[in-house]
Inverse folding.
């Protein structure tokens, strides 16, 4: 059984971590010499509950810091955790991990917790290597700088000063002038901060490259894959995946963009019109913030009382921070507090259609987190992110038939069409981000301008039919707004891999709702106990790496958005 770590101090300090990990390390020798695995099992159990405690602390501090990045109290707590506590954790963990993986009782422990535990822990060796300890702290400081800069960023649209998140929301405004102004203001902010943003990234690339080479790799890429805890695929499979996207998704996106331009009355789709389709985009402000939680409650209750209960608990316990504010970290995330067996989410809602998808997405993560609390090994409660995004993106598809809790029936239909269009668009855009990052870490010593040029070249491969004439520099401004490129290298393709499962859930749901829901709940229960391809297999889903899967998903999407004939005729 999972148990709480005893004698927790009021504040988690570096000294406490050093002391407790030293006690655990001292138990390794006797456990190894014992005639049965009992002592090692006890040791692992205590190590596990210590891990739950500090990942709970990391979650609470990170959440409070994200809620107000300008609050000095949480800024200091976050810095202390990143610069003092985390290196101490990594140093002690590296010793324990090494002892565990060499232990003669390793398999006995694996048998108790699930064989994947050993494979999952093996991926953690290099990312925690002591040789890179200082470099990791340095990298996390740079990411923090990036996040502080973007969370404080403000622009003026329509005479009003607003956060970058709000300006981003206005890019789907029904008023053509407003969305153009918002798009220009948003991207211009990144161009105006180009040199400092490019400088932060350049240092991150150098640091990461050095970390990879310190471990004997040619560059950062193999370490980046281990950081994502990948066991089932490498850069070659990722490349083949992108090739499938190019073959099956890009032609459909080209059709969709041409159709959208025609609906807008322009020859080619203009960049500030990408987020607006006159027939399908819902007006801004359509989902008032004060109604979002109540509407979502109805939706989840109707979908599954078991999931609805998790949501009700989060509302009651203040585990949902919904509204956008200045100083709040942009974007949205879900976080697990394994020591409390709780989940929390943070969004940046502005009252628009996109908020609904984001809230449902983050709740998909939260549902998995709640359902996975019964998994004893904390390391197996949260899957690799390609698996984790199945729950979030899958929930977005399962919610589609129930969006009448948020919108009028005709608007819910438009939303559905928009969502499927978006799924195709996302496959293509993710491929840009993924190919870009491979290029960046394969060419670590290039100048920032060469990175911008690479982005443009790769963008043009996957994102057809958008006319940037006259605003060419605004094309590469996009990647500076993509926080994953800074904070979590190689994460982005995980959304595309997960989307192949999420779309399959949508297809199953259209035929058999009970089956789709049962598959979803099974995925939640699996949590992180299996590797990504085994998660697909165990849930009865087709492999993301089979090109026929991509072909059939895109075929389905094309049919759903009504351009199937156009593609076949082309
Ligand atoms: Zn997510």
């Amino acid at each position: 059984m999972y148990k709480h770590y005893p004698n927790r101090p009021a504040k988690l300090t570096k000294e406490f971590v050093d002391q407790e990990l030293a006690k655990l390390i001292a138990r390794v020798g006797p456990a190894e010499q014992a005639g049965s695995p009992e002592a090692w099992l006890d040791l692992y159990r205590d190590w596990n509950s210590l891990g739950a405690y500090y990942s709970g602390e990391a979650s609470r501090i990170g959440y409070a810091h994200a809620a107000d990045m300008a609050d000095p109290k949480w800024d200091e707590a976050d810095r202390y955790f990143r610069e003092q506590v985390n290196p101490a954790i990594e140093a002690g963990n590296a010793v324990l991990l090494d002892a565990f993986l060499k232990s003669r009782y390793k398999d006995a422990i694996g048998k108790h917790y699930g064989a994947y535990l050993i494979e999952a822990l093996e991926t953690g060796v290099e990312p925690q290597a002591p040789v890179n300890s200082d470099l990791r702290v340095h990298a996390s400081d740079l990411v923090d700088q990036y996040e502080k800069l973007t969370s404080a960023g403000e622009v003026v649209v329509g005479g009003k000063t607003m956060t970058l998140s709000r300006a981003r929301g206005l890019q789907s405004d029904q008023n053509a002038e407003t969305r153009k102004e918002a798009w220009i203001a948003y991207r211009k902010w990144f161009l105006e901060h180009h040199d400092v943003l490019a400088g932060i990234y350049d240092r991150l690339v150098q640091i990461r490259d050095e970390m990879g080479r310190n471990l004997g790799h040619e560059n950062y890429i193999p370490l980046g894959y281990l950081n994502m805890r990948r066991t089932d695929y490498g850069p070659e499979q990722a490349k083949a995946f992108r090739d499938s996207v190019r073959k099956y998704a890009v032609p459909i996106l080209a059709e969709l963009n041409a159709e959208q331009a025609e609906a807008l009355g322009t020859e080619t789709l203009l960049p500030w019109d990408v987020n607006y389709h006159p027939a399908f985009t819902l007006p801004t402000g359509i989902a008032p913030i004060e109604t979002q939680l109540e509407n979502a409650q109805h939706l989840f209750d109707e979908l599954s009382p078991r999931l609805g209960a998790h949501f009700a608990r989060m509302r009651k316990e203040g585990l949902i921070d919904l509204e956008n504010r200045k100083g709040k970290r942009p974007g949205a995330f879900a976080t697990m507090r394994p020591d409390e067996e709780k989940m929390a989410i943070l969004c940046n809602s502005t009252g628009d259609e996109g908020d609904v998808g984001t809230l449902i997405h983050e709740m998909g993560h939260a549902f998995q987190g709640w359902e996975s609390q019964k998994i004893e090994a904390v390391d197996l409660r949260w899957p690799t992110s390609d698996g984790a995004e199945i729950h979030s993106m899958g929930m977005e598809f399962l919610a589609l038939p129930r969006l009448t809790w948020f919108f009028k029936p005709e608007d819910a239909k438009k939303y559905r069409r928009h969502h499927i269009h978006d799924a195709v668009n996302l496959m293509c855009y993710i491929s840009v981000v993924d190919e870009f990052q491979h290029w960046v870490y394969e060419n670590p010593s290039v100048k920032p301008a060469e990175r911008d040029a690479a982005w443009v070249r790769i963008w043009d491969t996957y994102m057809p039919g958008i006319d940037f004439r006259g605003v060419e520099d605004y094309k590469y401004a996009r990647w500076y707004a993509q926080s994953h490129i800074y904070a979590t290298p190689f994460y982005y393709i995980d959304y595309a891999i997960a989307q192949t499962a999420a779309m399959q859930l949508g297809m199953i749901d259209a035929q058999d709702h009970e089956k789709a829901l049962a598959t979803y709940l099974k995925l939640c229960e699996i949590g992180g106990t299996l590797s990504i391809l085994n998660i697909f297999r165990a849930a009865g889903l087709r492999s993301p790496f089979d090109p026929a899967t991509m072909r059939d998903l895109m075929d389905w999407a094309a049919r759903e958005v009504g351009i199937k004939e156009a593609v076949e005729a082309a």
Summary: The first helix runs from residue 14 to 26. Residues 83 and 137 are 6 Å apart (CA to CA). The two ends are 59 Å apart (CA to CA).
